[in-house]
Specification:
125 residues; mainly alpha
């Protein structure tokens, strides 16, 4: 069966600058260890500044923001569970997982591969 639709051309590979700024979108979340809400503000600033210039950064910035917002929600859910003692373990696991996923995402973005975080709620589309 044939269709009359033209073939879809693959997107061009991200440039070196695009890959670098895409990596910064993910690594900017580490600002949360220094600045309150820096884990959201860092990727937001990079995304807002570079999204019009680089399509890869627009994609990875949205992904980083969605993940950080999701992590914040998961952390807020864990806080009441601290009183049941399981919340402490969940918060530690959440922090370790978030750090690991941020590093993986930064490496993938630097390679020019779009990264999709697991367990992410897609608020920004």
């Amino acid at each position: 069966m044939t269709t009359d639709m033209p073939p879809v051309e693959p997107a061009p590979a991200p440039t070196k600058d695009e890959r670098m700024w895409g990596m910064f979108c993910h690594l900017a979340a580490l600002a949360g260890y220094i600045i309150p809400f820096g884990h959201i503000l860092g990727p937001l600033v990079v995304w807002l500044v570079k999204r019009e210039e680089y399509p890869f950064v627009a994609d990875q910035g949205k992904e980083a923001l969605n993940f950080q917002i999701s992590i914040t929600i998961y952390g807020l859910i864990c806080i009441p569970l601290v009183f049941l003692a399981i919340g402490i373990l969940l918060l530690i696991a959440l922090m370790v997982a978030a750090l690991v996923f941020i590093v993986i995402a930064a490496i993938k973005a630097n390679e020019g591969t779009p990264y999709r975080y697991p367990l992410t709620i897609r608020f920004i589309k």
